[in-house]
Amino acid sequence: MIFIKQFDELGRDDIDQAGGKGANLGELTRAGLPVPPGFVIVTDAYRNFVSDHHLGGKIAELATPSEDRAEYDDASEQIRALFADEVSETLRAEIADAYAALGDDLPVAVRSSATAEDLPEASFAGQQDTYLNVRGLEDLLAAVRDCWASLWTARAMAYRARQAIDPTSVSLAVVVQQMIDADSAGVMFTANPSNGHRDETVISAAWGLGESVVSGSVNTDNIVVREADGSVLSSETADKALMIVPAEHRTEERPVPDEQRSQPVLGESDAAVLAAYGSRIENHYGAPQDIEWARAHGQFYIVQARPITALPEIEAPPPTDWTVPEPTAMYARASIVEQLPDPLSPLFADMIDPAVTRSLQSLFREFLDEDVIKDSDVGLPTINGYAYYRYSRSGMGRLMWKSPRAFRMLFTRGIMTDRWRNNAHPKYRRIVSDWTARNLSEMSVEQLMDGVAALVAAATEYYTAVQTIIPVAASSEVLFTRFYDAVVRSKDDPPAQVFLLGSDSEPIRAEKSLYELATWTRSHQGLAASLLALPPQEFLTQAATSDDPVLHEWHTRFEAHLAAYGHTVYNLDFMNPVPADQPAPLLETMRFFVSGKGADPYERQRRLARRRDEATATVLARLDPARAKVFRRLVRWAQRVAPMREDALADVGLAWPELRRMLAEVGRRLQRASVINEPDDVFWLQRSEINEGLGSLADQVAQRKELWRGQRRATPPQLLPKGGWGDMWSKWMPAASEDQTGDVIKGIAGSAGTITAPARVLGGPQDFGQMQPGDVLVASITTPAWTSLFAMASGVVTDIGGPLSHSSIVAREYGIPAVLGTAVATRRIHSGQLIRVDGDAGTVSLLDGTEQSRIEPAAQSSSPRRKIIATTAGAAAAVGLTAWVVQRRRSHKLS
């Protein structure tokens, strides 16, 4: 049996013999690339060793998939000890001959090469070991055995389990390659991994051996080269303090000489030469490549190449120009925009703007019995894709004149809450029910789009009604807090928010529903085990198709939950699925409850209500009759009104399941007509394009997606134009500056307390599975659909929001600190980073240390004056900018 293959004897089809690395090096050598010479100890050698030493059964027994990392660690230690024996004389002789052919005791690099490694669908890069500067036959044989054993590291076993790869199916080849004593080395990507551009080559370079770059242990120079002509598009030279160099035994880390630390590793001409090699390799393989390179004595060497996995889709450069089309108008990201953290899809932007104008006109007509708002006065246009409320100068003037009357009506006792409960909500439900009852297959595309427009208009009108509740809810809490802090509170009394906790609301009821289903699931052992073991989507598929009565009952109960709560939106743009469309994220929270880690929401609510009632009784017992009467009226008002905002807001997306069903039908028809490539591409069209039924719009869709992805990287200013209205009103807005730098991010204090814990940055429901118990939830916004994650979170940080936003209200119910309206959290914080959330000061500190998580005692909640400013900003669209200013003036009189 032959155990050794030279590089030039191998090609890309020899993975079974040479593993991913070995096959690629053979392919590169045969293609004439400058690959350092070497050979591969093929997988038969590994299998022969395992067979000769009777290791197969022991390995299979120990490598059982597990969710416990400690079990993998223990199994790995036992398996790796099995590879301590010597190799056979036959293999020893073959390795000795091949090694001698390279040179007398030549230093070599010894690398593991797994059979499932470096494939486009499963990148195992870094899962097994590499040994550098190996010298002498005995050292080489020891490194080979260590490579074999590294197939069974805890990390590699866990990775294979996640990829559902049978552990008994894998084997390992070993690459032995002449060691290049590199003066510089690095990594090259033949497509830009940050923006997906296939015509840009990105080079990372450092002094010394390339292992430092691959492991990420040193700073690197970063160069972007245009593939077409080799020109350098950008170049960043790092302060390179350390490098890895060959040592007497293996390698060592040394300081970079002072004269080299800030010197570029590669000149522009060098980068162009290296990029040309990258282009040649990419063309050879026919796909973008991740390439490791080294340079010694002015000569470049290619030491590895593999397909780039998870290359992002192409995106345009992030926008930097925030010029507005109407400089005399004010553009504000408030109110409904809190539900729209991302750039809008073209279809939603096209349909929501006129709907917002009409709904506000209708509202003020109802308030004032006259048409105060013209079409040109207000709207919801986009700037760089982001939604902004636009108020014209003339429109603001008319609103200032008329708004005192509207403002009085808004705060007339009960009128707005009754309007929502008895009029807006039933009307919205009737419209949704009417369209849901229709047969979509019998409707034309134009009729379907009329239905979509009708549902968008109904939702917008409903949202406008919801927004009229916000000033009432804000004022009830602010006035109670003001009175309590100024006239009632003594030294040992709790903060005002304690009197407002323990109430029920739609998001809390949704959490209870999920908890009840989890409790029922736990009572069926096999069902609970399946829920915990299977991927969420696989479990849902089984539940929907299985004949098992228990699983069928679970599915029936889950469908009932979705029928009641599945319309809550993660993001108001109807491009984004709701839980009814994409229920898998809910299973992450259910698994948390089923595993016994979640707190009982019923008990939490009872505890808060008991504390609230006890505090109320204690305060009333010592107050004189006059103060007791005011206290009782104010606290009852706040307790009654505050939860209504959450109840009303939770149903904004009531039309979304049916609306998305209509658009899916339109998308399928357009796909069949070859207008778009996928049904979901309908969201990237405008209504006129859909109705006109033109030819293929695939190219326009691709361009709009590319533009959207670039826009999503931007941080939109909350007020525009800069230097005009934006600067004038910025101090009144409930959010921090989008230009913040430094280790402390400032925001709005939303829920009291302090926590130090790892951050988990989530972009939407597709990321919910990343959330771990005890993480700080960091998101652009949280809506009622995010509530299930609060059971797992130790704190909450958002880009958008204020003290009366969903994030704040629910965080208080859960007793976790919250800092809101930071503007930059999702862009400044990365998942896994240790942060300190101070819900009293409204700050988030970015930490470099590894402090243990801890919850510190909650202090008094954020200042009432700050709350007044923040909470009513969202009501600006509903009651007009003037009413908003009147509220600001009232707050100053109270201060």
Structural class: alpha+beta
Taking all residues together, what is the mean pLDDT?
A: 85
Regions with little confidence, pLDDT below 50 for 5+ residues: 117-127, 849-895
Just give the CATH class of the domain at 1-178.
Alpha Beta
CATH arch. level architecture of the domain at 1-178: 2-Layer Sandwich
Number of helices: 30
Q: How many β-strands, per DSSP?
A: 28
CATH superfamily of the domain at 1-178: ATP-grasp fold, A domain
> Beta-strand level of the residues, as a percent range?
5-15%
Distance between the amino and carboxyl termini: 89 Å
Here the CATH topology of the domain at 1-178 equals Dna Ligase, domain 1
What is the strand and helix layout of this fold?
Layout: E1 4-6, H1 15-30, E2 38-41, H2 43-52, H3 56-62, H4 69-81, H5 89-102, E3 108-114, E4 130-134, H6 137-149, H7 154-162, E5 172-178, E6 184-189, E7 200-207, H8 211-215, E8 221-226, E9 232-236, E10 242-246, E11 251-255, H9 258-261, H10 268-285, E12 289-296, E13 299-307, E14 330-332, H11 346-368, E15 378-379, E16 382-383, E17 386-387, E18 389-391, H12 393-410, H13 415-436, H14 445-467, H15 469-488, H16 506-522, H17 525-533, H18 536-545, H19 549-565, H20 584-594, H21 601-622, H22 625-650, H23 656-672, H24 687-692, H25 698-711, E19 719-720, H26 725-729, E20 744-746, E21 748-751, E22 754-761, E23 776-779, E24 795-798, H27 806-814, E25 818-820, H28 825-828, E26 834-838, E27 843-846, E28 854-856, H29 864-871, H30 876-894
Parallel strand pairs: 22-23, 23-24, 24-25
Antiparallel strand pairs: 1-2, 2-5, 3-4, 3-5, 6-7, 6-12, 7-8, 8-9, 10-11, 12-13, 14-18, 14-19, 15-18, 16-17, 20-27, 21-25, 22-26, 22-28, 26-27
Helix pairs in contact: 4-7, 11-14, 12-30, 13-14, 14-23, 15-22, 15-29, 16-19, 16-20, 18-19
